[in-house]
Amino acid sequence: MRIAILGATSHIAKNIVFYLSKEKEYSFYLYARDLRGLEEFLKDSGLVINSNSISVFPLQEFGSQAYDVIINCIGFADPIKQRNAGNDILTVTELYDNLIISYLQKKRDTKYISFSSGAVFGSDFTTPVADHSKAIVDVNHVVDGDFYQTSKLYSEIKHRSLPELAIVDLRIYGFFSRFIDLNAGYLLCQIIRSVRAGVHFNTDRTDIVRDYVSPRDLTSLIKPIIDSSTKINTALDVYSKGIVKKTEILELFVENYGLEVEYKEGDYTSATGVKPFYYSTSDFAYSLYGYEPKESSLECIMSETEKILQ
Q1: Which residues, including other chains, have CB under 8 Å from residue 212's CB and lie 6 or more apart?
Q2: Could you give the angle at which helices 246-257 and 187-197 cross, rounded to 10 degrees?
């Protein structure tokens, strides 16, 4: 099985390669801008480049090989990058998505796994996402935070308009692993930076609910999509075994890592909004692929934080 991964230095891509490269029947064609960074990651992970299973290419050489599956990990998931990217969120997302679709139209047996986001539904997460939820875009008052949502929404709608192609959009609400960039603007990165520096973590008393999928559970969903003989065109919400509150996360770090929390009044809203209940209750992934995650959000945070802080 020949698998191309675009954006191979991204957080999610590193985990796909790290876990699925153990499958002997898979060969990976990794495409990235930062080839040196990609090669360093592979070396540090004990993975051999230019073996029978892993090859590395500049991003502009995508399409020069034949693939059975294409996984698109190019994007701007980091809130800090979203804030600074502006129009690039729209143009870069569309550029590579169109390149992949063009390839699929020539090679109709190739599958496409595209990483989307729960942000596709907008910024109103006063209740969790459900199967009946609808995307909301305030087109009369567009702000910077809308660009990321719009890019994902447009891609998903475009994919559904091509039912003859095998495309699965995986909506990620939260994902955490040892390979995360700790300089990113995520809540967990901010907490871990505070632990490492031995400084107070500043936040307010507003509680929020998140769903962090472990890399093992994510790859357990990706594998049957790759291996399936059925051509499916759909979007799936990805979920863990159990959600977690911010207060529970803080308690974990206070008890296990000596985190000191200082509660202050102020604007601690992320670039993408408050999102009190940012997770999905849809189990469509189970209906299609029998997906049953093994790890809760808290278990994922505990196991991956231990790897980071070691």
Answers
A1: 174, 175, 176, 188, 240, 244, 297, 300, 301
A2: 20
d(CA 240, CA 51): 33
Distance from C-alpha of 81 to C-alpha of 185, rounded to nearest angstrom: 8
**Burial group, residue 142, by CB count within 10 angstroms (0-12, 13-18, 19+):** exposed
pTM of the model: 0.94
Return the structure tokens found at 114: 């595209």
How would you classify the pairing of strands 209-210 and 244-245? Answer: antiparallel
Q: What is the pLDDT of residue 142?
A: 82
Closest CA to 289 of 241, 198, 220, 239: 220
Q: pLDDT-based confidence at 141, cuts 50/70/90?
A: confident
Write out pLDDT tens, residues 254-304: 999 999 999 988 655 555 567 999 999 999 999 999 999 999 999 999 999
Handedness of CA 281, 284, 287, 292 (dihedral sign): negative
What element of type H or E holds 303?
A: helix 297-309
What would the DSSP string read from start to end of 2-16?
EEEEESTTSHHHHHH
Mean per-residue pLDDT for 6-13? Answer: 97
The per-residue pLDDT for 81 is 61
The separation between CA 234 and the C-alpha centre of its own chain, rounded to angstroms, equals 17
